[in-house]
Amino acid sequence: MNTDEEYRRAVLEPARAAGDQPPEDLRVRYMLREPLEPAAVAAAVKQVRQCWRRARGQLKYRRLVDRLEAEHRELAAVFAAAERGDVRPLAERLRGGRERDERRREAVRARLADAAGALRMVTPAEVEAIARAAGVPADEGRALAAVERIDVREPDRLPPTAPYAAYPKVRESLDVLGRRHLPDFLFGERLTGPMRVLDGFAAAGVTLDAAAVEAAVAAWARRSRDTSTTHAGTILAGLRSDADPSELVRYDIVERLRERARQRASERALLRFAMEDLGIEPGDARRLVFAIVRESGGGGGVAARLRALLDAGEVYAAAEMADGGLDNDAPDEAAVLAAEARRRVEAAVRLREQAAAETDPDRAWRLLADALRLVGDLPGAAELQRRLPPEPVPAVRADVDVTAGGTTVRLFFEPSPSTAGDVRYHVVRRRDRPPRGAADGEPLVGGRDERPPVNAPLYYAVTAVRGEAASAPVVTGPVVVRPEPADVAVAAGDGVVTGRWRLPAEAAGVRVTRDGHRVPATRDGFSEIVPNEATHHYLIAAVYLDADGREVVTPGVRRSAAPSAPPDPVFELAAAPDPADPDALFVRFDPPGHGTVELVLTHEPPPWPRSALLPVAELRGVVRRLPSDPAPGGLRVRPGSAGWIMAVTVAGGFAAIGAHHRHVHLPPPGRVVADRRGGHVHLGFDWPGDAAEVEVAFRVGRSGDGRPVTRRAVTRAAYDTQGGLRLPVPEDEPVEVTVAAVGTAGDGRLTGPAVSARVAARTVVAYELVRGGPPWRRSLTVRLSAGRAARIGRLELVLREGRVMPHRAGDGETVQVWESVPVPGEVTVDLPRVAGPYWLRCFADDDVIELGDPPVRSLRVAK
Amino acid sequence: MAVYGIDLGTTYSCIASIDDVGRPAVLRNLEGTDTTPSVVYFESGDNVVVGATAKDTAVLDPGNVVSLIKRDMGRDVTRRIHGIDFKPEELSAFILLKLATDARTSAGEEARDVVITVPAYFGAAERDATHKAGRIAGLNVIDIVSEPIAAAITYGVLNPDADRTILVYDLGGGTFDTTVIALRGGHIEVVCTDGDHELGGADWDARIVEFLAERFLAEHPGASDPLDDPQTEQQLRRDAEDAKKSLTTRTVHTVRVMHDGRVAAVELTREKLEDLTRDLLDRTIEITGRTLATAAEKGVHDYDDLVLVGGSTKMPVVAARLETELGLRARLQDPDLAVAKGAALYAFEETYRRLVREGAAERAEEMANRAGLSAEQQRQIAGRTIRTVASHAFGIVVVDRETGEESVAHLVHANDELPAARSEDFFTVFDDQDSADVRVMEQAGSVESPDLLDNNEIAAGDIRIPAGKRAGWPIEVTFQLDASGLLNVAAVEKEKGERLDLKIDVGGMSEEEVERSRTALSRVQVS
Known about the structure:
A: alpha+beta; five-stranded antiparallel beta sheet; flat; B: alpha+beta; Actin, Chain A, domain 4; Substrate Binding Domain Of DNAk, Chain A, domain 1; 33% helix; 32% strand
């Protein structure tokens, strides 16, 4: 692991986790080692600051690194002193660092203790926030909480509203009867020990269930009737309602604690009230108080609770709370919220009553929707709304669809005129009689009957449903489904037609007719001898028996077949190139007895034996048909690429495999250019077609002098990368080069037509410029020499004034021209009278002679 | 012999030369674009890829890709890649090498003589590092020139007849600076300059990246932070750059943030982008205001043009905000390429002037003729002066003999005209002192301060003192900042007037290290 990674893992990541708080301990921050050595400190600081700079490239570290740099500026003096050799300020600072770290941890512990209070409980979010604020990682915060024996947990979710709507009356009656709470009312003296209410009701010696409630009912029934029994009746009605008794008990306890909390009781007082007055088990009591204190965001009081209820849409509960427990001296905000809750409940109740009186269910539905929008928990409104049926659909139509997958019945209906609410549609099917409601019959999904019973009268009904209420069903029918024979296939052979199908089990039989005449057939198929080369039309229909036993014939399925004799294969085949077109071939064969001949191309040897007969469609997928022109004795084709040319004979949907010919496409290379470049000949050409490689053969010397031919195989890649070919050839020898495309056919190599190019020999003639003669008649001699005797066609001496060398004869003025100069030999001319600087140079106008310049100093005249 | 101008940018670089008709032309790279991303990818220790391919690879292999190198120039920060420590100078050299190699392919001749541009606000260490980067790349660095001056030359060439005062607002990929320049009779005079080289388009991108990551986390609270994954961060940077560019013309752009196998489509509007980056733009406005105040102290009150340079000025909010704040109509003139073109012009003119100065008038004329310049134009170039100013204050650390306290004595002040030479006498502290430390400091903040902490040490060296001298023996130290902002320090012994042996290394690399790097890097394949 390198330093950067190590530093990121050990320092930057924990610091990020602690809210971009750099570690207080400078030993960690700067990777300092004890004992402090000035040189080591300077090196470590430099290395760490480089790490910062590199880490800053990642956005997640940017803020942290900026903070580290800012703090480093404050520490610069300490490190500067250390670098100079005085580590005392740094050591002092390090001691301070440990103390600061300890102080920071101490601060976290104190804050945690404050937050936990008498309950010794905090939420995970609170621990995290405290740790972050103090610059300590969250894990350490949790560890410190554990050390302090502080319980870190989420507060229990307490019921916000009463499980029984008339709970306030129950509470009133409990107070009148002088009972501490519901369990006290139910069990009285039997309730001896502390009770648990949070995870279901539990107390020593008693069980809260229907039997206990019934026992209480029986006990009160025995008592003489007075106002007490009325109050007890109210309480027992609550306990016998839909609400779970243990939930009702929990709500009763919670509500009593909430009431105390609203009255500004301290945590300690609440805990004492829960344990001593209400008799709750200490663990449950702590959890209950913890949850109630955290409920309104840290003791926000009535206003916060009202706001929470209003925000959650529980306006009715808010109004109830306001009616039940709001003091006259409640805060202004709470009073405003309470007034709002009451107003909304009043308006909603008015709407609900209006809806109850309304005869149009749609209008009533909308009124209730408005009421529920105002007060989400308005008692009775949602139930009433759910029971308002929509209008039935206007009409239903059923169509029988026959598809490849089978027969289906599709139902079409207009939507219900009711627009209010979410109207859904139930579709049911019944045999023999119309359905009477949404549940009378087999339900169908999506308005389609994928598997309708065959040959039976069917009735379909559509019901519009909104909430729990359904409209009257709208019925269509009877529909009788009689499917046609399935998977009908009629195949033609040589003078015979066969048919095959699947008949539904319910069908009584099948009726096959050809051109109006009955054809004998079994339940599964038929076979009939017919004349070849004519198309025959068949109608295949299923026959069913109706309820009265009469035959009913379906419209039937039509199929046609044209029997034909099999094609004859081509037994032999000959191919030859077309002299007029190098890309075309003449393919000759004897015409077969029956069928049309086509030529096809395959890239692999044909997999079928000759004379094999296969369906044309199967053949077409594998081979390419070659467009062809008729030619004497066969066809003319342009294969375009190499492969196997095969003759197939096609007749009546079948193809007979014939003979084939291996074709290799090797055109001659085009535009062959050979240039002599000094000791090499450069060869270029257009690459021939799809040849894998070319063969280059070159022979040095004149033809017939028996010199060997050098052959070289060149791949396309080699040719392309080198931009042509360079053949080493002596400069003074002619050379003949031939190029031919090479391809492989099976295991053998094939060579295409070759193209040749000749490059003539070249003789290098060296020359010298020799100045001579007396000063008044200076002369210039051109002395020519060569490896062998030659004759230069035309030699030109050129002079160019200035500092630039002439590169062509036209670059300067001609001093003298000699024709047919023998080599070796020399020619002389008067030295031109020109003031310098100037250049002299000879040029030869000859195809086979190349002049070699003497050293530049003899060509250039400086003054 | 052609000369080239190189704009070595934080995010993109560019090379230009003078064409046959005397106009500056940008040479495209092998990928066919005018600008090359300043990103270096190390496929292996000896195969280095620079440019668009490197930038594409950043998403796949972020550990071996280096970008924003310019921000580290002049700092002693190395990057360890494939086990080799690379200095910022060496990393920049790879970019220069790529530009020069591609220019050779495109122009057909060796690109050797170059002028490299730096932000006006670059200090001596950064300039020196840039100079060394050029040398490591095997280039002959004719000069280092400030980007706004290069832009002003391009501007001056396009508007030759007018005497004008212009404010150059240069917001590049990684650096920002503002410069007030006066063009008078063909001469160019820098009045003052200011800037921040940790402020540029890349910071705009970073804000977008943070926003995208934040929105992704809001949509997928269970997923890990996209910024914890370097590959996702690189992808987000690319997306952010695309979004920023797209929002110069469009008003809404949607980015698909993909991380941890989840996707969030984040919509970014132009207004949101402007809100996210308002403080960055405010910082540029504040620095511009400071520059205008300095210019006012120097007697410049009226401006003819506000020239916007640098790709980031294409954001519509920049021009709009400058118009509202300064009341100047902003002129967006070839913001991506103006600096490279100006550098090419400067390289050409400077070479011409040097030839004339060295008496090689013929060669100078041949060079001018090749570029098709008239006699009048040649006269103008020969006579053109470029006066510039120091970007920061410079000084050395002095010790109070009484208290022993150290402080910085500034000899050259910010916005002093360059070239500047200041000499001051210093005295030895002890008898028989054999050497004296010279610590050259450069102002680090926006105003100068004698406190050591407010200055960066950019060079250190020592003076050898002849034996047997008593305390208080005088030495004259001369600081010279040349017109390119490069620092030279010389010391003269006062008794006999002899030059003392003074060895000063500005910046992070010594001459030997530069030479070593040049040899080592010449073996690396750069494409």
